[in-house]
Each structure stands twice: as structure tokens, then as C-alpha cells.
Design a protein that fits this description.
By secondary structure, the chain is α/β, with parallel strands linked by helices. It has three domains: 87 residues, no CATH class; 91 residues, Beta-Lactamase; 220 residues, Rossmann fold (3-Layer(aba) Sandwich), CATH 3.40.50. The protein has 13 helices and 17 strands. A hairpin with a 5-residue loop joins strand 6 and strand 7. Helix 2 crosses helix 3, helix 2 packs across helix 4 and helix 10 runs parallel beside helix 11. The longest helix has 18 residues. Belongs to the GSP E family. This is CpaF family protein.
């Protein structure tokens, strides 16, 4: 240390312009040199973060002293914390992951990071140095999961240990650098009261939906990505009686069910040799052998939808799922398509009969241009008419009133 300092003991200190400190090449060189010196002292990696930060600040100061440059204290501290995040965390993502107000983190190449707060996306100041920096951080995230990310496997969808979900696409598929999408896991799940207070649902509507769950109605929740489908599914699941056995199937486990008797199943992608994949359809079929009272499929997106509908039709009442769609009616069209994807050879009328006899309610949610999420319509499946599924409107957001003829109004005070 003393020898390093002695190189600049008699040199005048030139002030380093603040804008230069954001330069990617400078940061890369600083990070590399400081981390190399830290690695020479392996015992440091067992220290508390505060002790490591003091040591890193000293190394960063020496780095600029060696070059005869003066750096403001606040800039030096910020650079030291960046290095600490590189060593012990996830680099530029570390403060974003620790911010509980952020729900989504979107990385579009090394120089563009956006976050979602209260339903609105905004760009943040954090940056990566280059593509290699993004990949280094992402691979550190994926390392405990045993997931591979390289040119031969350029896409990954995974669940982090804290429950957050991460999706990564890298070059050559991503043309402008690595693209990363992180859906953060909420430490404190939203409640029905939170949705009512936030205006996502009216109180009478929430009572109706919770009653539908308690009375074992089969429910499909539809909406776009980020509209709040999983959030609503989580909240409604808490009205499942505690003595009932619930089996959940998801691609990446996000559900936070309040039920005390839950068996969670998660799909598995193929390994590097293309083997070992376990899909949602296999898990739905296996779930039916596990003596479930209800089956919850996190998302219906393919041939597993047919098995889910059959489960609803064979005594597993009160089961639920979500689907990407633009409206309640479109959700049924999506189901029709998925049934065909499963290789079902029956007529269109039979396909519609399977859907109509399986489902009771379709709840459609959306997110408006201000980032606010709402239940915009609730449709009841009333039967078939000339082979077409008939729907009965129970609720529309523009009216914010429930219909009176939905069959449960005698048990719900103030339904309209």
C-alpha cells in the first residue's frame, strides 16, 4: 500500500471532472484494478459489508492518487459503493432490487435501465459498463439456479431465490445488447382491502368474487402482461378453506397462496442436451393423481389448458387459472385455440361445450395509461346457444355496479 502511495506523494493533484467519472472505460479499469487487489486479500470476503466498504474506499482513493487526480468525497463514496455491489451483489441492479417501491426492472442493453413504480415506467441513472458487464451480473444471478446462458442457449426464464422472476435474452437474438426483465417478488403481498382502497375493484365486487371462491366456482382471470392477474389470483386464493388441499402449477413460482395446505409444482426446462423437460401439461396430469380439492394453474398458455378444463369438469371445483387476452370473450377464444393445440379432434361445438361446462366466471383485468390496474369486466358463463358460448355480464368498470341476476346476490348485502 505504502509503495503505491509513494508514486504520487510529490505530484500536484488535478481535479477529475465529475462527468469523466461516469465514463464506462474509466469505471471498467477502476473496477478491475480494485477487485484484483481485493482478491489478493481473500479474508476480506468474509468481512461485514461495512468493513469491506471502508477497504474499497481506500483502494479507490489510492487508484486516483496514483494518477495524481483529486476526486470529490461524494463521488469517491459512490464509486466505492458500486465496487462493493460488484463484489457482494448484482452491480448496478443492487439498489434497484433493494427498493421495495420498484415492481419491475427492465434492461435494454447496458446503457438503458427502466423501472416500474406505481404502475409507471421511468428511466433511471444506473448504467452498466458494457455488454460483458450485464452478462457477468446476470450469470451471477443464475449461477445458484444451475441455468445456462450463452450463444447456444441465449434465452432463460428463471425464478430467483427470493421469488423474483427473471427473463434474459442475449445476442445474437437481442440485437442491441442483453435484455433482462425482472418481476420483483413482493415481500408483503397485497390484500383484498388494498385492491379496494386503490380503486382496482369495488367493495361489492370483491365480496362477490370472494364468495364465488368460497362456493367453489371455477374462475378464469384474463388480461395483458402486468395487468394484475397473478395478484388477483393470490388474493382470491386466500378464501379457499384451510382444510382443502390445493395443488399449483407454474412455469416460475410466483403465487403466494394463503392456504395452509398447498403443494407447489414448477415446470422444468430442458437441460443443455435438450433433455429432462417437464411441461405444464405433465404437471397438471400428475396433479390430478395427488388428491387435490382444487388445482390452480398459474397461466394457461398451451395444451395444458385442455387438461385444466377437464380437471374442472371432473370434480375439482373451485379451480382457477389465468390467461393472456384482451377481453373476457377473447379469453374464451384463446382457450378454444389451446384445446386445438392439444390435438383435440372434436367439433367446435364440443370444444365450446367443454369450456362452458368447466368455467363459471371470467374476470378481466387491465392496466390503464396512468398505470392503474382495474377489474374492467366480469362475465358469467351461462351456457350454450347454437354451439356458441353465452355470457352474462355481471360487472363493467364503466358502470361500477354489479348486475343483480348473478345467482349469489341473496348472500351478499349491498350487491348493487
Amino acid at each position: 500500500m505504502g509503495a503505491w502511495r509513494s508514486l504520487t506523494r510529490h505530484k500536484p493533484m488535478a481535479a477529475r471532472p465529475l462527468e469523466d467519472l461516469a465514463d464506462g472505460a474509466l469505471k471498467a479499469a477502476l473496477h478491475r484494478e480494485v477487485i484484483e487487489r481485493l482478491e489478493d486479500d481473500e479474508a476480506l470476503f468474509g468481512d461485514e459489508p461495512s468493513a469491506m466498504l471502508v477497504r474499497i474506499e481506500s483502494l479507490v482513493r489510492d487508484y486516483f492518487d496514483q494518477r495524481g487526480e483529486a476526486v470529490p468525497v461524494e463521488a469517491l463514496e459512490a464509486l466505492a459503493r458500486e465496487v462493493l455491489d460488484e463484489v457482494t451483489g448484482y452491480g448496478p441492479l443492487q439498489p434497484l432490487l433493494q427498493d421495495d417501491d420498484i415492481t419491475d426492472i427492465l434492461i435494454n442493453g447496458p446503457q438503458q435501465i427502466l423501472v416500474e413504480r406505481e404502475g409507471r415506467l421511468a428511466r433511471v441513472e444506473e448504467r452498466f459498463i458494457n455488454d460483458a458487464h450485464v452478462l457477468r451480473v446476470v450469470r451471477r444471478m443464475l449461477a445458484p439456479l444451475g441455468r445456462r446462458l450463452d450463444e447456444s442457449s441465449p434465452m432463460v426464464d428463471a425464478r430467483l431465490p427470493d421469488g423474483s422472476r427473471v427473463n434474459v435474452v442475449i445476442p445474437p437474438l437481442a440485437l442491441d445488447g442483453p435484455c433482462v426483465s425482472i418481476r420483483k417478488f413482493r415481500r408483503e403481498a397485497l390484500t383484498a382491502e388494498d385492491l379496494v382502497a386503490g380503486g382496482a375493484v369495488t367493495e361489492p365486487l370483491m365480496r362477490m368474487l370472494r364468495t364465488a371462491v368460497a362456493e367453489r366456482r371455477n374462475i378464469l382471470i384474463s388480461g395483458a402482461t402486468g395487468a394484475g392477474k397473478t395478484t388477483l389470483l393470490n388474493i382470491l386464493s386466500r378464501d379457499i378453506p384451510s382444510h382443502e388441499r390445493v395443488v399449483t402449477i407454474e412455469d416460475a413460482a410466483e403465487l403466494q397462496l394463503g392456504n395452509s395446505h398447498v403443494v407447489r409444482l414448477e415446470t422444468r426446462p430442458p437441460n443443455s442436451e435438450g433433455e429432462g423437460e417437464v411441461g405444464a401439461r405433465q404437471l397438471v396430469r400428475n396433479a390430478l393423481r395427488m388428491r387435490p380439492d382444487r388445482v390452480i394453474l398459474g397461466e394457461s398458455r398451451g395444451d395444458e389448458a385442455l387438461d385444466m378444463l377437464q380437471a374442472m369438469n371432473t370434480g375439482h371445483l373451485g379451480s382457477m387459472s389465468t390467461v393472456h387476452a384482451n377481453s373476457a370473450r377473447d379469453a374464451l377464444v384463446r382457450l378454444q385455440m389451446m384445446i386445438r393445440l392439444a390435438g383435440f379432434q372434436g367439433s367446435d361445438g364440443l370444444v365450446n361445450q367443454i369450456i362452458a361446462t368447466a368455467l363459471d366466471l371470467v374476470v378481466h383485468v387491465t392496466r390503464d395509461d396512468r398505470g392503474h390496474r382495474h377489474v374492467v369486466e366480469v362475465q358469467r358463463i351461462t351456457g350454450l346457444a347454437e354451439g356458441r358460448i353465452e355470457l352474462g355480464l355481471l360487472y363493467r368498470h364503466s358502470d361500477r355496479r354489479l348486475a343483480r341476476d348473478f345467482g349469489w346476490e341473496k348472500r351478499i348485502e349491498g350487491a348493487a
